[in-house]
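Review form for a predicted model. The reviewer records the input and the model, then writes brief findings.
Reviewer: anonymous (R2)
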Amino acid sequence: MNQLSKTEEQLMEYIWKHEKVFMKDLMDCYAEPKPATTTVATLLKRMQDKGFVGYVLYGNSREYYPLVEKSVYFSVYVKGIIKNFFGNSALQFASFFTSTSEMTKAELEDLKNIVQQEINKKKS
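Model under review:
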């Protein structure tokens, strides 16, 4: 799966959140100074070429929608981080994440419960 640039990710976040959007909706998501419409159109074209967004044509207007679920993209992204920065070891990643993320005791307990649920699923 291709990776999105940071600017493409920001645009994709909006599309994931709203599911179906027109160009005017996308332009509204930007703070001032807004980028040119042609800039956003170029980003959308690149995202289409990468297989992340599709569109339905209504006259001269395109309604854009995601072709890739956010959870799928995030999963591939995290797997890439684990492979490239942690020697493909999820254990090293988890150790780094829990020691550097400043999680509270309650959050660590919640994480422990999530891990325990996964262990129980694997036992079945």
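Findings: The beta strands are 21-22, 53-58, 61-66.
Further findings: The radius of gyration is 19 Å.
Recommendation: see findings above.
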